[in-house]
Amino acid sequence: MSEQEETPGNGLRRELPEELPAEQPATPVEETAGPAAEPGLTGRQRLVEGLWPPRVTRAQLIVAVLLFGLGFGLAVQVASNSDSDSALRGARQEDLVRILDELDDRTQRLEDEKQGLEKQRDELENSSDQAEEARKQTVEKERQLGILAGTVAAQGPGIEMTIQDTKGTVESDMLLDAIQELRAAGAEAIQVNGVRVVAGTYLSESDKSVSVDGNKITAPFRFKVIGNPQDLEPALNIPGGVVQTLEKEQATVVVERSDEIVVDALRAAKQPDYARSSSR
Q1: For site-directed labelling of 99, which of 132, 136, 258, 269 has its Cα 20 to 30 A away?
Q2: Closest C-alpha to 196, from 96, 260, 263
Q3: For 46-55, how does the pLDDT look when each residue is reduced to its tens digit (9 = 90+)?
Q4: Tens digits of residue pLDDT in 202-212
């Protein structure tokens, strides 16, 4: 038997690579001791560092401005409501009763107007001569619209209000408040110093004077108003109303009832440039 056959194990062992000794793990190098770590911050110190100096973005600035505007508007509204509430809270019992009566009168006027319209509808539906009835209602409606538009004269019961302004403190917005209050109380025709007041009337100030639709007027301001005197006069004298506001400005206000008020200042009928009737 050959040498290789006798020792096959030794030949196999010679063909394999020699085993390498396992590498020893490197000894970790000790880190150089650095400076001592800073002591931990308290929660309050971290909060201060996070808030200051402030870091404001553009979006945050816009939101802040919007919130400021909203808060200011709410404050003004609350202050206005507080003034109105305080005026009513300090009113006498008879003044409060008068205010309630005025509200009841306004409600009644609206109810009467509703009933009048329903009556016209029923008359048109039940009249044997519907064409003649429609013509009568058209003529009456034209007269009413002419009074509202100021193109025809009007007369009837109402009040006269005279405002003496010796201090020159009465401004256009005060006169406008008086007109609005009279309208709310049911005024059907109003004339101020010879100028007819209509739906589109505007008041302005120029050269320390008041203008109504471009017509300059001076004190004393005389209002001629047609309507129910029992509604018009209390509306001007409510607590915090027109009369009290003018008196605070050292103006003198005199309101007189009358059974016959004539409003004869007229406005020229204006032909619309573009609007046309849609009726066929």
Answers
A1: 258
A2: 263
A3: 766 666 666 6
A4: 999 877 789 99
Distance of CA 100 to the CA centre of its chain: 25
Cβ neighbours of 264 (radius 10 Å): 13
pLDDT in tens, 166-191: 888 999 999 999 999 999 999 999 99
- Which amino acid would we find at residue 216? K
Pairing of strands 215-217, 209-212: antiparallel
> Which tokens is 154 given?
């009007």
How many CB atoms are located within 10 Å of the residue 233 CB?
A: 20
Angle at the Cα of 102 (from 98 to 103), degrees rounded to 5? Answer: 120
- State the Cα torsion 180-184-185-190 to the nearest 10°: 50
For 18, half-sphere exposure in the C-beta direction (CA atoms, 13 angstrom radius) is: 2
The CA–CA distances, whole Å, from 240 to 30, 74, 139, 198, 245 equal 89, 22, 41, 26, 6
Q: How far apart are CA 174 and CA 203, in angstroms?
A: 10
**Alpha carbon distance 250, 113 (integer Å):** 39
pLDDT at 279 over 80: no
Q: Measure the CA–CA gap between 131 and 125, rounded to whole angstroms.
A: 11
d(CA 260, CA 226) in angstroms, rounded, equals 9
Report the C-alpha gap between 147 and 191 in whole angstroms. Answer: 12
Question: What number of residues does the chain have?
Answer: 280
Yes or no: say if 222 and 138 are a contact pair by the CB < 8 Å rule: no
**Residue in 141, 143, 139, 152 with CA at minimum distance from that of residue 269:** 152
